[in-house]
Design brief:
14 strands, 4-stranded antiparallel beta sheet, 5-stranded parallel beta sheet, Rossmann fold, RNA-binding
Length: about 575
Amino acid sequence: MSMDPMKPFLDSAVGYVSSMLREAYGIEDTFRIEPGGEIADFAFPCFQFSRRAGVSPQEMADRLAQGAEAAGGMLTVSARGGYLNMSASPHKLSVAAVGTVLQMQREYGRADRPPGERMLVEHTSINPTGPMHIGRTRNAVIGDTLVRSLRQAGVEVASEYYVNDVGKQVVVLYWGLTKFFDGEIGGKPDHELVRHYVRANELIEKDESAAAEVRDLQQKLESGDTALLAGTRKAAEMVLDGIKESLAHLNITHDRFVFESDLIKDGRVKGVIERLKKLPEASEDKGAWYLPFNGEEDRFYFTRSDGTSLYTTRDIAYHLDKLSRAGRLVDVLGEDQKLGMKFLVRTLELLGEAKRIDFLFHSFVSLAEGKMSTRHGVGVLVDDVISEAKSRAKVEVLKRRPDMNEGDASSIAGMVGVGAVRYNIARLQAEKKLVFKWEEALNFEGSSAPFIQYSHARACSILEKAGSWEKGEISYDEDNELRLARQLALFPSVLSDIVRTFAVHKVAAYAQQTAAEFNQFYRIVPVLRAPPGRLGSRLALVDASRIVLENALCCLGIDAPRTM
RNA sequence: GGGCCCGUGGGGUAGCCAGGAUCAUCCUGCUGGUCUUCGGAACCAGCGACCCGGGUUCGAAUCCCGGCGGGCCCGCCA
């Protein structure tokens, strides 16, 4: 059995068109099959070949539709508007879809892929100077959804967080801590320590001697002062602990954290600088080395005049490290990084190592009132959004289940609240800008996480009431059954599309559509009170729906409650 | 000044990469319905949109050029 229930039908459609084209017109060229939209599963537009064949598109479509018993009963074909429409036999497709899902269970969605192509996705990588605000959360949610979707699709993938613990802002944090911090954190570290960071920034802005102190520290750090490196790393790690906690609340974890300071300490940054200096393109201006791009239009400086490294130089060292550990890289980044990454890629190309890097850029999140900034302590913090979402969810849960005990209600409210936050970020195309609005972030109906979770809980409830049942022959004939089964069959192709395009919002849309189809089925087609002989097939369909909803929610990092 | 991205009903959004036909998707909103329920965070019907102007094409929301509006970038910062 194919892991993708739609695949055998697509193969027959290709085979059918190919043989009909040859038979009727002697055409043996390659051709394209399109998705058939609402009308059919697959469509062949006749426009390209009709002129050459000397017939109208509609004539050609009519002729091509005359293959009796299309593809051994796998397909139904029809001609309309110059298109040859082909649909998988609904009966055969529905049986194949449910059968495949029940066989693969949590693995459903996976496809055969060439082995050995390990991927590495870098995401989040927030500067550890303060708590995550909602803008940074977008990166984390998109990145984690990508990692989860790739895994569900059968890709071997690791996730990584690049910790910037040597940059200017971490020095400011460190300096602020030495000045104002008494050693007692007394709360979530990112929230507590950022106060010293904000205060330090305020002081530096108006006090020149403070600014000079920080500059000295920065110089010392870049010259490789080990005690100072340890100090800034410690400061970064404390804040990072708080960020990790926030990420955990969002069901986000990373396989590995790479510290920028390590790349300096073990000499890799120095090695990169040496390699770059040897490039024929490399030039020098007052001791500062750069690569000229676009003539001398854009200079990419990779050292300062004092020989120390710059951010992108260290990032190149990091990318070389990643390339040594994975076959293919993806960086999830804000759109402000585009130009810098162009220089990075072109530099890696000069070093002969650029091939396997892809980027997933996303636009910024803004507030109705303007921009966010950790440095100035303005922004909506993700911890606040999560806790507000949970408490509103709890009100909703208790409204519907007043008898439910406190612990269960809180646990469900947690899944619903976090799900709502993640879903409302993941549903958007990454390149569209996002204006954060509380009402939208906390939406619990319509196109939302709870809508999907609720469908899942309903399916679980039916299955629980049914108990165990005979898994005999299955078959479907009701329109709502066939439509739902077809929807389930589409999951592997959605994931394959994401593997190709990284368009993670598609798995959000798919989950929503699947839930909607399930709700329609649920409304119209009785399961537990099914007519004689239909019970097993319908329970199988409900179980398959439950599995697909769970798998899709898993891609989104949203828990699938059995009851809510 | 130069570069990149975005512009779809009242609000939000899919479709654009690989141009096609059928009501251009879905959510929200508004109007009106459904159900003696396998859990109503539900279901059904209706209202309402491709920024503007050229071009390519048999055919453009989709590709190209030019406007307009918004975001981001153009540092020996990160």
